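#lab-general

N.A. 3:47 PM
ok so I finally got the sequence cleaned up, no stray characters, all 433 residues accounted for. can someone with queue access submit it? mine expired

B.Y. 3:52 PM
send it over

N.A. 3:53 PM
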Amino acid sequence: MQAEAEAPAVAPEQGALSGVRMLFVAPDDYPAFRVDLVELFSNHLVSRGLNIDWSLRPVQDGPARVDERGAERFHVARRQMSERFGVLRYRMAENWLRLKLAWSAARGDYDVVQIRDQPLWAITYTLACKISGTPCLFWMSYPVLEGRLRDALLNLNSMSLPARAVRIVYAIVADFLFYRLALPLSSHIIVQSKRMRERVGFRGIPMEKMTPVPMGVTTERYNADSIRAIEDPRLAGRKSMAYLCADVVSILTNLTMDALAELVAEGHDAVLVLIGAVSDLERKDLEARMEKLGVSDRVIFTGRLPLAEALGWVKRVDVCLSPFMMDSAQQVATPTKLVEYLAMGRPVVGTVHYDQNEVIHGSGAGFVTAYTGKAIAEGVARLFTDPQKAEAMGARGPAWVRANRDYRHLADTVERLYLSHLAPDRARIRQPR
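B.Y. 4:20 PM
back already:
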């Protein structure tokens, strides 16, 4: 998820997962903000009785601790980045913490273990779970190793040559171990899309061992009727676009600025709103591009925002943008921002991508264009020049999301999956609501 979305306080019910204790290990930030962690797990599955012990990465310095929040416990390693060798010391503390949690799994302290996007840790935990007979599932929300290899080969993160070499070697070796050891040892694999399922299947993993669970939203929270639109004088009397993302990076954001420049050249008095965190390095690169294109006074950076405020910007603008790469790492994704836009009833322009094609064509809530600034601008211009049609298209989004990508329904799939892997004495066979 792109905005700061705190997990709602949810009282566990006596659901089908009542009393089931899970260990969830992931490389995500703590406090969690991504929508699948917050909505699917901390909201829906906790409300069905699931108890979760989390191992996430703290975003702020602090002591080693266990934060308890109702049915959830967050195991946090000591983090003091300002001290000497702070990064190294944190990594060592995190590794030690995760080894202790693996020992707990080996002792049978958990009913199910879920590893997300940690390819090598999956080996440790699957072996630990073999000792105790605990099911260990892998959640593949992103092809992490392919992404790291791409970043190193193309130098997308401005790394030194030795750092790139190390990352390339790591990605190749880890890829071999991941597909030959970690995934075969896993009890089941949750993938993000049908395309990802096919891709992993090509690497020798049985198709029946994988279940696609795409990114979604909880429509009760992503609901235009409950969100107040942002009123900002910089948007008054102008056409506006929004691009929502966790981290604003130039490789994708450049396309939205190119589209803005094209629209201005065609006579549209347009503004672009960028909603998400921006690093100092990226801000410098983006400002240089804005100046080159002559649109510096037409771009609004909001930074990362609380959920309601971020959605307030989405509700206010005329069109929402979803440019998405179709490289080998990204083509298997199910972009969250797209379904967030649709849930808010906004018309969208997205670039060619397997999932985006399916969502936009299936919902009728916007246009799919080529992956260029000019093509995006042409799609946006069609919506700018016919606002009634644009609003009618956007209005189709919420119903499609409720039927296809609401986390209430996606939680049913995950609940059934967990129940099917629990030991008979732990599984309470009940129909998900």
